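Limitations

Structures in this collection are predictions, not experimental determinations, and the ligand pose is part of the prediction. Treat each record accordingly. The example that follows, with pyridoxal-5'-phosphate as the small molecule, is included so readers can see exactly what is and is not provided: the inputs are given verbatim, and the output is the predicted complex.
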Amino acid sequence: MENTNWQQFPFDKFFNVIKSYVENTPKQGVVAFEEPAELREHFDMTLPDLGRSHDEVVKDLEAYLEHARNTLHPTFANQLYAAPLPIAFIGDAVAAMGNSTMATYEAAPIGTLLERALIHNLGKYIGWDRTEGVMVTGGSNANFSGLLLARNTRFPETRRFGNGNTRFSVFVSEEAHYSFFKALNQLGIGTDNLIPVPSDSQGRMRASELDRLIKAAKERGFTPMCVAATAGTTVLGAFDPLDEIADVCKQHNLWLHVDAAWGGGTLLSTKHKAKLKGIERADSVTWDTHKMLGTGLVSSFILTPHIGSLLASQRGGGNNYLFHDGQENTLDLGPMSLQCGRRVDALKVWLSWRLMGDKGWNDLIDTLYSRAQWMAREIKKRPDLQLLYEPESLNVCFRYLPKRHYLANTAVRPIRDDLIKRGDAMINWSSRTGESFLRFIVVHPGADEKVLGKILDDVIAAGQRWEASHA
Ligand SMILES: Cc1ncc(COP(=O)(O)O)c(C=O)c1O
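Predicted complex:
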């Protein structure tokens, strides 16, 4: 039983591992690359019959960190998030220690009030006076929740009886996140009924095309259920024209969901928030604060200005042991959630907000935006590089330009792999309209101009190595 005892646990030994990992991060690369077979060979994954000593498990923790991707390193630019704020780590660790469930107010009184306060505050930034919402397990599930909410609110009979013979269709831009595809599967609507709306050259949904496709779907006997616009697309970081899309939704009386998982943080910047103009007209919004605001995976919200709708859509069950005969405390968030047991994710977001304040967020977002602009200008100055899109937010899409230009697409993947294998940087890649490119996300607070400039040099060096090997 000794290993179950909190008071006797040698926390210092484990915290020292974290401390030295953080301290050594600048010296270490972002990646210690190994093929899966090598990783299996180098890392002892066996689950022992007899428990090991604390000192041995300290070594296990060190080994884990040695082989893990280091998102604290400023050259990690692979995802729409990087190093979390240190205070978010503290909040997450304390939430894990507290081990409360957010199902009921009685189990997590302060967690419940904090989550409600955050929901109200995020809603305020969207432009709503009152907001209902709940934290979910990621932007994908927030998008699913938004579509479920749309269907159950507009077609309440579906909650009990399912979709019946109604052939619903949902409209998203062709740049939208793949979670909508998954959501249509989950909702029994069918993935074929997700209608991709063409986007313009910058990756923004064309509102006129949306109107045309809604009319066409109606003519073919479909029931349009919802339009899901994106504020900050995954690959290009583009913002759909929300006001124009809201006009089309109004004309057709359609629910408007806005996926602001990525771009939502922009609302905290006085300078850049106009990019999301029209978001206040949305019926539901997805917002991941773990992305631009760095509050740590996972901090995701589904939000709506229609008070009571989320509860009406999601409630049901658990009365015999949790919500007690349907007499749930009106503060309980559980009935609005897809989950039963749920972590106190609100703590890390709330502590982060306390430390940053509105002003801190504003400055962080402005800094990240100006770095992305700086990086784009630097790319344009360097003849060996090609900028594919002017960044609308923090996604900088560019590539190495070989002397034989027609090899530009081919070179992208090997250059990226080379950077990872050498531990120089971790950058994702993508393609659009037949062109491949590196997708660099300027979200790491430590990636200043010096770091970004060095990464551009490293991309050029990797490109030259690739070219030399393909002479
Ligand atoms: C626009 C957008 N929406 C939703 C998601 C899904 O978010 P999550 O990874 O939290 O499920 C992403 C992820 O990158 C995204 O880019």
